[in-house]
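Quick start: load a record and inspect it. Here is HotDog domain-containing protein:
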Amino acid sequence: MAADGLKARRRGDYKFQLEYRTRWSDNDMYHHLNNSIYYFLFDSVVNTYLINHCALHPPTSSQIGLVVHSHCDYFAPIEFPAVVDLALRVNKLGKSSVTYEIGVFERGQEEAKAVGEFIHVFVDRDSRKPGQHGTADELRTGLSKILVDKARL
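Running the structure step on this input writes:
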């Protein structure tokens, strides 16, 4: 999707949200959230959702998610101190892959500060290959709850 379309995202476009309180150490030398922190936040909101809503238990699950792609479009800076709402949705749910979209919103503001994409491929923990039957049922069920209608992409 073009950056203009992503920039138009609002909180209501997402089905799950997680709060994050920025830390002083999140800032870079320009006094705004460092780019690497956004990826830390993406990983945190995705895995929080997987653990709390998809029955994923990372230390013992037979399937694990490997990140095969990620990117971020930045629209406006966030500075410490701030409360950030990470908004999550699933744009595509394949047989063994899932494409997440994460909107980053500063508390009290409707405009997205950044929008990222994160793609997991769920594989067998030992072989590191997708299972013959794809994503486990519990994962698929949980992920389908935040899957958006293709018309809203």
